[in-house]
Amino acid sequence: KVLDHFSMKIRQGEKIALVGVNGAGKTTMIKLLCGFYRPDSGQILIGGEEIGNFRKKDLLRLFSAVFQDIYIPPFTVLENVSMREREKTDKARAEKCLRKAGLWEKISSCEAGMDTPMTREITEGIVLSGGEQQKLLMARALYKDAPILILDEPTAALDPVAEYEIYSKFNEIVEDKTAIYISHRLSSCRFCDEIAVFDHGEIIQRGSHEQLVSDVNGKYYELWHAQ
Fold first, then answer.
1. Using an 8 Å Cβ cutoff, are 180 and 30 in contact?
2. With left for phi above 0 and alpha for psi between -120 and 50, is residue 35 left, alpha or beta?
3. Is residue 111 within 8 Å of 172, Cβ to Cβ?
4. How many Cβ atoms from other residues are within 10 Å of residue 184's Cβ?
5. pLDDT digits (tens, 9 = 90+) for 33-69
6. 78 and 107 in contact (C-beta within 8 Å)?
């Protein structure tokens, strides 16, 4: 079992970080919440409604997610942000999302701007670096504008400067959405209201960054204080 006798409540509008080593259960919890997995037992409630009562398309409308798996289809930048045809895309909104994600300077430097194809198989097309691809996925999640934003290690491929920019603008990026941020590092979660520390499918500690740094236990002490 990945999660056993697991219980957690996230309040609307809360910014919470899930922290722990690989295999602790963080991403599994998120995939259960999104309806990708079904629990063997127990309940998952959203707004008091059992998750199984939602139609799949209605459930997916609740979430904008940036997972570590990256797929960039060979569409234009604009279409990759909206995941819609060009004529159905709000260009001003797409630009705003690219600015928030820190990718606008790169895209605006291209001759075709947001109409640049995202493949080198086409003349004037581009292929983004790993960090730039993560920024594009961030812009895509923001464009969807779902009430719950999930960020699974969204800065893993970014350099320290770009990572700091994302952290410093986190509240501006998230606005009033409920945000769930997954990380291996306690130091990258300073901007969250609360942090839940996962270990072997359980939450062993929960509190603010300041509380956990001063009170973290056992095998996590050296890890957290080294960051």
1. yes
2. left
3. no
4. 15
5. 999 998 889 999 999 999 999 999 999 999 998 887 7
6. no
What's the pLDDT score for residue 184?
A: 73
Here the tokens at position 9 are 């409540």
* Cβ-proximal residues to 90 (8 Å cutoff; 6+ apart), any chain: 82
pTM of structure: 0.84
DSSP strand pairing (45-46 vs 178-183): unpaired
Sort 159 into a burial class: Cβ within 10 Å, 0-12 / 13-18 / 19+.
exposed
The answer to whether 157 touches 131, Cβ cutoff 8 Å, is: yes
**How far from the centroid of its chain's Cα atoms is residue 101's Cα?**
12
Q: Which two tokens stand for residue 91?
A: 């260009």
Task: Give DSSP secondary structure letters for the chain.
Answer: --SSS------TT-EEEEE-STTSSHHHHHHHHTTSS--SSS--EETTEEGGGS-HHHHHTTEEEE-S-----SSBHHHHHHSS-GGGS-HHHHHHHHHHHT-HHHHHTSTTGGG-BS-TTSTT-----HHHHHHHHHHHHHHHT-SEEEEESTTTTS-HHHHHHHHHTHHHHHTTSEEEEEES-GGGGTTSSEEEEEETTEEEEEE-HHHHHHH--TTHHHHHHH-
- Look up residue 40 and give its two tokens: 């063997």
C-alpha span between 16 and 30 (Å, rounded): 12
